[in-house]
Structures are given as C-alpha cells and as structure tokens.
Specification:
Layout lengths: L24 H6 L1 E5 L2 E18 L9 E17 L3 E13 L11 E13 L7 E9 L21 E9 L3 E10 L17 E10 L3 E17 L2 E17 L3 E14 L2 E15 L8 E9 L9 E2 L23 E10 L5 E11 L7 E2 L5 E3 L8 E13 L4 E12 L1 H6 L6 E11 L1
C-alpha cells in the first residue's frame, strides 16, 4: 500500500526519487533541490491525529464510572540535506488532551515541544557504506519495541537527547549511543534535557534473506529513583538480548530473549524475559486470515528479603503489547495471546485478540505499561490477573488518511479481586483519524 511510505520515524523517509517526477505542489513539498553545486535539498511533512477515547472503570474500581477524552496530536517536520555528508532534521510536536476528569498526564499532553532536532554527519566515502554521527534530540525505535520504543500509541511520543553513531551496510546496521531520556512537562517548550546519560548501548540489525533476521544488543540504563515491591532506590541495569524473526510466504516467527543484571539500591539484579510469536497466513482462503500466537514469560521478584531483585524492567517499552489501553505492564508476567487478522481488502484490516495474564511470581505485584510499579502482590496467593478481549478495525482511506476503531474489555481475575476489594471489569473504546503528508 502507498501509505507504507510514511515511516514510524519520519526522518527515515527518503524522497530523492521525486527529483525527476512531475513537479506537483505535493512533490515540491516532499523534495525540493535548492542548489546543485553544492547539492542543497529540502523536505517537509507532518501529521494530524485525532482520537476520542472512552474508559469505564479504567483502574478496575467499581463505580469509578465513565470517563472520556479528546486527544489531538499535531506534528510538522523539515529536513535539509547539504551535499552527501550533512543533514539537519527538526520536528515540532503538539499533543493536546481535553475532556478527561482526571489530572492531565504527559503521555497525553505536551502542548508544544521540539520532538527531533539533530545534525547528521556521514564520515564514509564509499557509496555502499555509511558511518553516521547523529548529535541532538532524536527518537528511537528498536526491534519489536519491547525495550526501546517511540511509544506511538501515546498522544505524546518518547524521545532522547545525545549522541548516536551508526554503521550501515546493505544487510547490517550497528548503532552505538549515549542518550538521556528528557523530563517531560505538559506546557510550552518546558521539557528538561538531562546532562547525564541514562540510556546507552549497542544495537545490531542483521538481515539474512534465507536464514532470517537477527537483533543482538546491549542496553545500559540508570534511574535515580525506581520502585519495586521491595522498596525504592537507585537502579543501574544492564540488558543483554537477542531477537530472531522471519516472514516467509506463509509462516511468521518472532523470538526474543533478554537477561538483566546490575544493582538496585543494595540488591543485586537478576531478571529475564522470553517472548515467542508464531503466525501462519492462510493465503488460499478468503480475506487471507492470519492466525498468530504470542507467549511471554517475564520474571518477577522471588523474595523481597533476599537482597536480590528478579523483577524485569522493560526500560522504554511501547506498551501496546497487551491491548489498546493496556492495563498490565511487561514485568512479573506470563501471558498467552492468540489473535486473528483478516484482510477483506487491501485497505481494510480486522483483528480479534484474547490475552490471558498470570503473575510469574506470587511474591511480586503488577506493573504499569510503562514498566513502573503499580499494585503490590505479596498479600495475595492468586496467580491469575485477568483476561483482555480485543476487537479492532483499520481502514486506509487513501495514502494520506486512515481511520481506526478499537474496543477492549478486561475481565478481572482472582488476583485483582484480592487486592482491589471493590473491583470491577474495565472497558475501553476509541476511534482515531490520522492524516499524514
């Protein structure tokens, strides 16, 4: 579909091919060569996204009732290329929330901020190789988004500030970076950049056409104040991980595992995760149904008194693994997630999901989608958290405009009934209209 030209990270789009096309207004907007010696080119784009979201008993509390919000995101970006070595990219973003009776969250509102502002310099001279240094504020999204994501599902997206060096060939990309996750505030240009890096690492992407694809990576992260079942403290965490994925004509595979070590206060960290996703496309059937199964095992703390922390930290995850309005985060969790996808046409997609959630450790609680601690769990002997039922539809009206609908029902299990005395099932509905250019 033509809409796939719009990338999740807009600075990854390349419109040089429009230099020889019919010079319509839109083509000039997407690519204009201002001079040829030296080559100076300009590209412009943006997004308008509007969403209406309805939540009922969203925190599993009976009689919490109906709440809704109108979410709007406006984004404009521009890229300037000077010769083959330099590029400047800038993106402004405005995220607005109205209607909710709750206090505004920075995941929903950031009135105006600089989302991306970086300079690229390519050290290489070979046409088939890039050695790219990126300095400044930038978005990241690695692999399946389990640990480092731009969090596009939120009204406000995640970004970092710092340095990244990339080695890029046709089937290999290696990034090394030292970055800071900036402190977000909901006002106008009031986000704060940290001087000290709190995310660093090396991430590789290896593409092997016949064998499959691999991500092998190391991530380091530091937080001055983190909370777990055992208390609060400074956290220094290292992650070693590998991911394998492949999409053939019918089968799809996505396997990922990670191990974490480090220090939380006086406690030693030893945590892990394993994710398996398998899918099969029935191409001979009407609507080309794809049946998939995802299964996650994510460690939780075994004993809050043993001076060891076994709770996995997902760092900066995309969050939407377990629903459109996910209520459970990827720590101390076992989930089984079958889902069916249908394509009635090239423009229309339907999906139905079931997600079953258990606690991995009975001595640990449950976490928010961001990975932060939510509800303590050592007081309950129950393992089963609950079940999510999901239905969604996405329609690509044209290559610029799309609309989606989603419904989510979360049925509480015994654990939630234990820890929330007046518990209730949770409901969520949203519709979203997105325009990109």
């Amino acid at each position: 579909m033509q809409a796939q030209h719009f990338m999740l990270l807009r600075f990854e789009e390349d419109y040089h091919h429009l230099s020889d096309s019919t010079r319509s207004f839109y083509n000039r907007l997407k690519y204009s060569q201002l001079s040829s010696n030296p080559a100076l080119s300009f590209s412009f784009g943006g997004e308008i996204r509007s969403e209406w979201a309805v939540k009922v008993d969203e925190n599993w509390i009976a009689n919490e009732g109906f709440n809704h919000s109108f979410l709007n995101r406006y984004s404009l970006h521009a890229g300037v290329n000077y010769g083959k070595k330099y590029r400047l990219f800038v993106q402004l973003n405005s995220s607005l929330e109205n209607g909710s009776r709750n206090a505004v969250s920075t995941t929903d509102e950031d009135k105006l901020n600089v989302q991306n502002l970086f300079l690229d310099y390519d050290f290489s001279s070979a046409p088939a190789l890039k050695l790219l240094l990126r300095i400044g504020r930038q978005e990241l999204d690695y692999g399946s988004g389990r640990l480092v994501s731009v969090k596009d599902g939120n009204n406000s997206r995640q970004y970092f500030t710092g340095l990244k060096l990339s080695y890029i060939k046709s089937r290999l990309k290696i990034d090394a970076f030292v970055l800071a996750a900036d402190k977000t505030h909901p006002g106008l240009f009031d986000n704060k950049t940290k001087i000290q890096g709190n995310l660093w690492g090396v991430y590789s992407d290896v593409r092997l056409a016949e064998t499959g694809n691999f991500n092998i990576y190391y991530l380091g992260a530091m937080r001055e104040q983190s909370q777990f079942e055992s208390g609060m403290g400074r956290e220094l965490r290292h992650t070693l991980a590998i991911r394998y994925w492949k999409e053939s004509n019918r089968f799809r595979y996505n396997l990922e595992t990670a191990y974490q070590f480090g220090k939380f206060g006086q406690n030693e960290i030893s945590a892990w995760t394993m994710a398996i996703e398998l899918g099969y496309v029935f191409k001979q059937l009407k609507f080309k149904p794809t049946l998939s199964l995802r299964n996650d095992y994510i460690s939780g703390d075994k004993n809050i008194l043993d001076k060891k922390l076994n709770s996995f930290n997902p760092l900066y995850p995309k969050g939407g693994y377990f629903g459109f309005n996910p209520l459970i985060g990827p720590s101390n969790l076992i989930d089984v997630h079958p889902f069916l996808t249908l394509h009635p046409s090239e423009k229309l997609l339907f999906q139905v999901d079931l997600v079953y959630n258990w606690r991995y450790s009975l001595q640990d609680g449950i976490f928010h989608p961001s990975g932060s601690f939510n509800i303590g769990g050592s007081s309950s002997p129950a393992r089963y958290i609950g079940t999510t039922y999901l239905w969604s539809a996405d329609y690509q009206i044209n290559k610029y405009l799309s609309i989606s609908f989603g419904y989510q029902f979360y049925r509480v299990g015994r654990f939630l009934r234990d820890v929330i005395p007046n518990s209730a099932n949770s409901k969520f509905f949203n519709t979203q209209l997105s325009f990109k250019f």
